[in-house]
Structures are given as C-alpha cells and as structure tokens.
C-alpha cells in the first residue's frame, strides 16, 4: 500500500477533492468559455449585426459549412478535456491525446456532455499520467493508454452520465416552472454560492443544461453575489474592487469569507429576493447556452447569454420549448434590474445593519 501511495505521489495522481472537485471543474468551465460560449457570442453578433466575416463559412467538413463561431462551438469537447488535463498537470502527450477523447465523449454525452467529459477526461488523464515515461516506448504507450482508456470509458459511461445530468437538469427546470417562487430561491441561492466558492457554477449549469426560468434564477443568484460583493465592499476596495468583482469574480472574497463567514450573508439574502423576482415577476429566462446561467456578470456573459437566447435560442433551450423573441422595453428593463440594479441596491442595504451590530467590521472585505 505504501508503494502504491508513493507511486501516486510521484505521478501527481493522488485523488483529492480540490484537484477533482475544484481545479478540474473550473478548468472545464474555462474550456467551455473559450469555445462554446465564445462561439455562440460570435454567431449571434454575426447574425444580428450583419457582420460578413462572422457569417461566412470558412471551412467545409463532410459537406457541412462552418462559420468561425460554429468551429469554436464544435471544439467544446476537446477544449474541456485538454483544460481538465492541464489542470491535473498532465504531460504533453496525454494532453494532446485528450483531444479525440473529449470530442467523442462530448458527442456521446449529448445534452449532458460536459459532465461526461468531466468524468472521462479525469480518468483518462490520470491513466495516461500513470504510465507516462515508465517505458522505453513512451511515445507509443502514453498516448495509447490515454486514448484507449478515454474512448472505452466514453463508449461505456458517457451516454448514461450525459442522460443522467440532462434528466436532473430537466427536473430542476420542471420544478422551477411548477414552483417558480420556491425554486427561484433555491436555484438562485445554490448556484450563486457555487459561483463565489472555488467551484464552477458555470460548469454545473452547463452540465445540467439549465435554461429557461431555472437559468434565469441561476443568473439572478450569480449576479447577486458578484454585483452584491462589488457594491457592498466599495468603501474598502473602491473602483478597482468594483470592476474586479463585478465583472471579474466574487471568488476574490473567498479568503475574507473564511476569516468572517458573515460577510457572505448579504449576497445570499439578496439572491433570496432577486431569484423569485426573476422567476415570478419578470419571467426572466436564460435560453442562450446553459453555461451562461452560471456566469453572472463575469465578462457580462450572463446578460449576453440572455440576449442570445432571445434572438437565437440554444439547442437545449429549443428542445425545452423555447422560441426566439423580439425583446421589448420590459425584457431589457427586467434584465438590467435583475443583473445589476437590484443587487447593487439591495446587498449594501442588507449589509448596513450587519455593520452596525459588528457582524461586518471595517476592512473585512478588503481585497
């Protein structure tokens, strides 16, 4: 047993919650951002603004033409797998071999493909790392073990994992339609907390395929955290903190939350308010790519996702019954209120009495 443990340490393949539950999942979200999310934005900009080079089909594969955005979207599986392998410090030959593994797994996983890629890429990367540089024919053994492990696992478990994640996402969306008030609170709070914790809310939403009202509630929760922390801590962090948290990430506050968990209360309570407002009053739906539901105001991806969902719903949203709409004043006002205005007003107000009773002290949120 000690020899096995020492070997795993040598190969940097010791299982841990941080490596698999935090680092790998965050990397998966980055892979999604650089392909699926970016490609969707480019496609929407091309269609809505009539930008010629974005609408042009640059390459034809098997008789199908691809725009720049479409190419980016098609590479989501490989990008996620390579990002996960990189987070796990996989050597070069393992990383390169994860490209076909990610592509096949994402395709076999269907709507729940991101979660399938997450599981398979971790197992394939770790298998490749275990044999890397252990033989004199490493150039054959390492990619072969990585490829066979990944593709065999993909053929075996990708479809069930994808179907399971997709089914869970549908249950959440169905529950939100049935009980928009309670589920609006639950989804907003849980996804919002996940965004600020060192785990990936974007990856969770993408894996579950959260769109529609549930996606809108998730967006509300994420914006409550990001905009809430940014405005609530303005007196400590000024404009730099406002931008870095409001458009960057509220995860910057994690060290302060560990030192004083009470500073997390105002953003959470804000999401308790804005979540059901999004579902019950504004009927805000996220029908863009599901990854946007967990992005909040990070790079304005959440609001942009709502816009892309209005004009060109994603495949998963269309499957759930979404339709393209022409947004009017109500839709734009609702998006602005839920994403920015309400969190910016409510969160600092909730923080005021907590400051007065000493639960939040000066400097507690200093970055």
Task: Report what the structure shows.
It is globular, with a radius of gyration of 21 Å. The N and C termini lie far apart (44 Å). Helix 2 (17-49) runs antiparallel to helix 4, helix 2 (17-49) packs across helix 15 (301-311) and helix 11 runs antiparallel to helix 12 (234-248). Strand 1 and strand 2 (64-66) form a beta hairpin. Strands 1-2 form a two-stranded antiparallel ribbon. The longest helix has 41 residues, at 138-178. It has 17 helices and two strands. The chain has 367 residues and is an all-alpha fold. The protein folds into two domains: 2-164, no CATH class; 179-356, no CATH class. Helices cover 74% and strands 2% of the residues.
Uncertain stretches of 5 or more adjacent residues: none
- The tally of structural domains comes to 2
Spatial order of strands in the largest sheet = 1-2
Spatial separation of the terminal alpha carbons: 44 Å
Number of helices: 17
Q: Shape, please?
A: globular
Proportion of beta-strand residues: under 5%
Helix amount, in percent? over 70%
The count of DSSP E runs of length 2 or more, i.e. the number of strands, is: 2
List the quaternary state of the chains.
Answer: single chain
Q: Which series of helices and strands comes N to C?
A: HHHEEHHHHHHHHHHHHHH
Backbone CA Rg: 21 Å
User: Structural class, from helix and strand content?
Assistant: mainly alpha
The main β sheet shows up as: 2 strands, antiparallel
Average pLDDT, to the nearest integer?
91
């Amino acid at each position: 047993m000690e020899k096995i443990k020492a070997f795993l340490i040598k190969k940097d393949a010791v299982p841990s919650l941080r490596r698999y539950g935090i680092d790998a999942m965050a990397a998966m979200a980055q892979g999604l951002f650089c392909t699926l999310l970016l490609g969707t934005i480019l496609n929407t900009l091309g269609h809505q603004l009539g930008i010629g080079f974005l609408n042009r089909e640059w390459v034809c594969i098997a008789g199908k033409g691809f725009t720049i955005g479409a190419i980016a979207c098609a590479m989501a599986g490989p990008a996620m797998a390579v990002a996960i392998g990189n987070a796990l410090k996989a050597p070069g030959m393992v990383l390169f071999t994860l490209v076909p593994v990610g592509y096949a797994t994402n395709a076999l996983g269907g709507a729940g493909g991101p979660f399938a890629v997450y599981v398979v890429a971790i197992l394939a990367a770790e298998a490749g790392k275990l044999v890397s540089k252990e033989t004199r024919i490493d150039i054959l053994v390492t990619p072969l073990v990585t490829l066979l492990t990944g593709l065999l696992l993909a053929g075996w478990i990708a479809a069930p994992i994808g179907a399971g994640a997709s089914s869970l996402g549908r249950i959440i969306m169905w529950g939100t339609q049935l009980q928009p008030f309670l589920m609006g609170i639950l989804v907003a709070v849980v996804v919002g907390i996940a965004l600020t914790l060192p785990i990936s809310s974007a990856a969770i939403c993408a894996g579950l395929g959260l769109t529609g009202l549930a996606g809108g509630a998730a967006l509300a929760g994420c914006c409550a955290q990001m905009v809430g922390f940014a405005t609530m801590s303005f007196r400590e962090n000024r404009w730099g903190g406002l931008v870095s948290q409001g458009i960057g990430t509220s995860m910057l506050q994690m060290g302060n939350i560990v030192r004083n968990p009470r500073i997390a209360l105002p953003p959470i309570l804000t999401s308790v308010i804005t979540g059901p407002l999004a579902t019950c009053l504004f009927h805000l739906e996220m029908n863009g790519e599901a990854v946007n539901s967990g992005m909040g105001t990070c790079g304005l991806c959440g609001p942009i996702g709502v816009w892309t969902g209005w004009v060109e719903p994603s495949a998963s949203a269309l499957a759930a019954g979404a339709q393209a709409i022409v947004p009017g004043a109500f839709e734009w006002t609702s998006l602005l209120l839920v994403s920015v205005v309400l969190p910016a007003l409510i969160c600092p107000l909730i923080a005021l009495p907590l400051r007065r009773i000493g639960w939040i002290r000066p400097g507690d949120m200093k970055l």
